[in-house]
Specification:
By secondary structure, the chain is mostly helical. It has a single domain, classed as Up-down Bundle (Rhopdopsin 7-helix transmembrane proteins). It is 72% helix and 5% strand. The protein has ten helices and five strands; from the N terminus they run E-E-E-H-H-E-H-H-H-E-H-H-H-H-H. Strands 4-3-5 form a three-stranded mixed sheet. Strands 1-2 form a two-stranded antiparallel ribbon. Strand 1 (9-12) and strand 2 (16-18) form a beta hairpin. Helix 1 packs antiparallel against helix 2 and helix 8 (239-267) packs antiparallel against helix 9. The longest helix is centred in the middle third of the chain and has 34 residues, at 103-136. The N and C termini lie far apart (62 Å). Its main location: membrane.
């Protein structure tokens, strides 16, 4: 299945310049490629549709124009961008006889996956902070989480993500050594570490430091926020109030648990624990399946989103009736 002759080169100076790499994907299981193509196509369409609907509802429905949904829009945009970087090439290779990826696209996937992963961690932390302020300081919520503050937090999240992920990788990335075979479903840092020509101790250390800043610190903020929320909810005298407080946090907690569980395992471990087949499944979950689950979790378990969708459908049905009548 894997033929190093797939590799092409450009230039013949001291070393050949790589233009293509073999992208193994699921080619070790050829009988599963066609069913996986249809499965991942459906998941990708669900992800695009669900996240686009979330953004559209927040933009047009004034009831959803709150800090929580402002950050949710950033999460939805991130999901669309992340999956679009990864899934189309993966789907193409599932059907293509020649399983390759251009070197430029491989680098782009590496940088974007690192940036999107870091940004998602920080945005999830900001969403937890928003819930903490809303539940623990309800009377001061709109004063603290005003729109200028939300915009500054969002800009800060993307800026920190860029400088904590993309910039260090740019200055520490090494040339690749043959055979130029990426035994994964897309290009990301833990996989490329096995293809670098020199000692990767510095790169592994930088990856752990970067993961500590973009995974552990936001996770610590989320944990502290929810501990304070738990204390505040337990002090509520109304059972209905406690139920409402927990319901506003349950969707976010579900997303955090899924994303952090897979992300920490992938990026906060030594290279020696790498497992090609197992890591494909983990990456598949946080890069392909999780972006499709996020809008489903937030819409199916959130009364405000379901209410906004209901109002949109009602307005659409009324407009259709008016067109029919007139």
């Amino acid at each position: 299945v894997l033929n190093p002759c797939y590799i092409s080169f450009r230039g013949m100076e001291n070393a050949s310049t790589i233009t293509e790499l073999v992208l193994v994907g699921f080619s070790n299981h050829p009988q599963a490629e066609l069913p996986l193509f249809f499965l991942f196509s459906v998941v990708y369409l669900i992800s695009l549709f669900g996240n686009t609907v979330i953004i559209f509802l927040v933009v047009i429905d004034s009831c959803l124009q709150t800090p929580m949904y402002f950050f949710l829009c950033h999460l939805a945009f991130l999901n669309i961008f992340y999956t679009t970087t990864v899934v189309p090439k993966m789907l193409f290779n599932l059907l293509a006889p020649k399983k390759v990826i251009s070197y430029d696209l491989c680098l782009a996937q590496t940088y974007i996956s690192l940036l999107m992963g870091a940004a998602e961690c920080i945005i999830l932390a900001l969403m937890a902070l928003d819930r903490y302020v809303a539940i623990c300081y309800p009377l001061r919520y709109l004063l603290i989480m005003n729109w200028p503050m939300c915009v500054r937090l969002a800009v800060g999240a993307w800026t920190i993500s860029f400088f904590a992920s993309v910039v260090p990788l740019y200055f520490t990335i090494l040339p690749l050594c043959g055979p130029y075979i990426v035994d994964h479903i897309f290009c990301e840092v833990p996989v490329l570490l096995h293809m670098f020509c020199a000692d990767t101790s510095l790169q592994e250390t930088m990856m752990v430091i970067g993961a500590s800043g973009t995974l552990l610190l936001p996770f610590l903020l989320i944990t502290l926020s929810y501990l304070r929320i738990l204390v505040a909810v337990m002090r509520m005298h109304s059972a209905e109030g406690r139920k409402k407080a927990f319901s506003t946090c349950s969707s976010h907690l579900t997303v955090v648990t899924i994303y952090y569980g897979t992300g920490m395992f992938m990026y906060m471990r030594p290279k020696s624990l790498y497992s090609a087949e197992g890591d494909k499944l983990i990456s598949l979950f946080y890069a392909v399946i999780n972006p499709a689950l996020n809008p489903l979790i937030y819409s199916l378990r959130n009364k405000e989103v379901k209410g906004a969708l209901k109002r949109l459908l009602e307005r659409w049905s009324v407009s259709q009736m008016q067109k029919t009548l007139f």
